[in-house]
Amino acid sequence: MTPTSSSTASTASSAGVFDDIVRSESSLRRFLHGLPGVDQVGCEARAAGLATRSIKTTSKAFAIDLAIRMVDLTTLEGQDTHGKVRALASKAMRPDPADPSCPATAAVCVYPDMVATAKQTLGESGVNVAAVATAFPSGRAAMDIKLADTRDAVEAGADEIDMVIDRGAFLSGRYLDVYEEIVQVKEACGDAHLKVIFETGELQTYDNVRRASWLAMMAGGHFIKTSTGKVQPAATLPVTLIMLEAVRDFRDQTGQMVGVKPAGGIKTTKDAIKYLVMVNEIAGPDWLDPDWFRFGASTLLNDLLMQRTKMTTGRYSGPDYFTLD
Fold first, then answer.
1. Fewer CB near the last or first residue (10 Å), C or N of the chain?
2. Among 60, 164, 174, 157, which Cα is nearest to 113's?
3. Catalytic pick from 119, 146, 186, 261?
4. How do the domains of the chain map onto residue ranges?
5. Mean pLDDT, 10 residues at a time, over the chain (325 residues)?
6. CATH architecture for segment(s) 5-313
7. Residue 304: C-alpha distances to residues 14, 201, 245 (Å)
8. Active-site entry in 91, 119, 225, 274
9. Active site includes 261?
10. Beta bridge mates, 162
């Protein structure tokens, strides 16, 4: 699922639009702290209300296939092997080998040292390789190491880079440091798309999620991503709602679209559909596309496949029918 030319054009760096704002720490702080505050009660109530929406059978079938196409099938474990990554890449291309009508996933997400293996397996399938970088998941490394990490992944064939921000710098109010880091990592990405991970479970407040969203978009991130999946809470509906509002408002102000990727803790078809309803209601139907919305997940795909089989055959497959990731 290679990014389209229109996608690339519309997510060009926003630095020119915000030059005056990012000229100093004080002006950047004024802008970020001048964003409207998040009404916690209202946000959580809106997310809970959207989560109760039901969809019809035909829409559910469409939603399941769309969710499959949006999955970044992920393995980020210390025990990862080249064999496991090859198997995961094969599954990403043909999630249900018994049903050729089942769509492929958007990407396979791995550590940088596994990029070449994933790329070789995926070939010209159209499934992207995403690599976590910048000292994932902590982000605790010197800048030259983070940039080398990024360049190594891109040189190995990564189509997408998932970087983590320095949460310590952000929470200390060193917003310009975070901004400049994202700009430098984006430059190191070359033609690869950049997803900026906030680790929202460590950002403490919804206001901080909104500020981080704008900061990452102003720095030119192609996607904003909730979490590494290593910290709880990871993705939640209220946090994702705030990020969807941010990308919607950013496009209204700049004309540029930025994608959103919730990651961590999304395990069931019911969960995925709740997120898709929210995307449609908050950001709008333009974001109902793998170029603009992704799920970072490892176990979600199997549940989507079981529900898909149930809708096409009328019966559930056992949980061991599909390969475990």
1. C
2. 157
3. 261
4. 5-313
5. 40 67 96 97 98 88 97 97 98 96 98 98 98 96 97 98 98 98 98 98 97 98 97 96 98 97 96 97 98 96 94 70 60
6. Alpha-Beta Barrel (3.20)
7. 36, 26, 27
8. 225
9. yes
10. 132, 195
